[in-house]
Write a structure and sequence with these properties.
There is one protein chain. This protein has about 350 residues and is α/β, with parallel strands linked by helices. The chain has 8 helices and 9 strands. The chain is about 50% helix and about 15% strand. The strands form 3 sheets. Strands 1-2-3 form a 3-stranded antiparallel beta sheet, with helices on one face. Strands 4-5-6 form a 3-stranded parallel beta sheet, with helices on both faces. Strands 7-8-9 form a 3-stranded antiparallel beta sheet, with no helix packed on it. It is elongated, with a radius of gyration of 43 Å. The N terminus is likely disordered.
Amino acid sequence: LLLEELLVLGEEEAVVSTQSTGGVEVSQRVYGLKEGNVKLKLTLVDSVGYGDQINKENSFDPLVDYIDEQFESYLQEELKIKRNLVTFHDTRIHVCLYFLVPTGHSIRSLDLVTMKALDKKCNIIPIIAKSDTVSKSELDSFKANIMEELQNNGVEIYTFPTDDDTVSEVNREMNDMMPFAVVGSREDVKIGEGVLVRGREYPWGVVEIENEQHCDFVKLREMLIRTNMEDLREVTHKRHYEMYRRGKLKQMGIADDGAHGPVSLQETYEQKRAEHLKELKTIENEMRSSYLQKVSRKDAEVKKKLNEMQVRYDNLRKNANEEREKLEEEKKKVVCYAFLESPLPSIRYN
């Protein structure tokens, strides 16, 4: 529905990309919007298949990973020697519209766990989807239960700023209305004397999307696109991105060490290089020691085999000599016996 509303602003051809992880398909659409002389590049991200898995444990990981990827992309651009953040396409998630199932009584545990995982990554605005399926009294009670459960479970949602006098009053009213209850429709229906409105038609009447008496869509659109867009970007940059940036820089070894002031990138590089070389030297020594041990074991095995073969050879040679001597003795006995048995030649004297 927000997408349909944005078409009125003069949308250029959208660039679509998708990535699928763990059964959740993150679909990204980038729109170039223009209103008068103002140009805006808007990225809409939808998580298709979230919560549909049988095992829902850590089903929010693809969403967290996607947000971190956008932070990482911005950080890599920021760390470049020749960076150009003015023209860089900032794909960081500035607001998460979290749609809640209109159960009428409480939030699902999956939603609580997911919102808790996301509240340090982006600005969360809870929204009751299909709010026309519950009555007005049930909706009011449901809203109160949602806010109470979020507070009891320590889930931090985005609150519209009230420090600016120009918008403080309206933002205070919008904060009291959270979570927003919306109804979606892409169809135009006729009401009254042929007037076309966007809404949902039922046997008992028509729910108008842009009628503030029927749902909070108009208020939500006003808060997001017109009143608080800049604050959403500022909070994302100064709070959520800064937390991610500090964590990544600490992993790289770049941090303030207190009394001695900030550690320079050169010092960090030299330290990391020395640690890496030391680690490589340790690995090399371990591999050399392991190799020498293996060679020593093999050498001992070969020597043992050679000794065994030498002993076997000596035994065989000894046995062969003994057999030869026995055969020689037998041969002598046979020759002597033959000589004794043969008749003496006769001698004649003339």
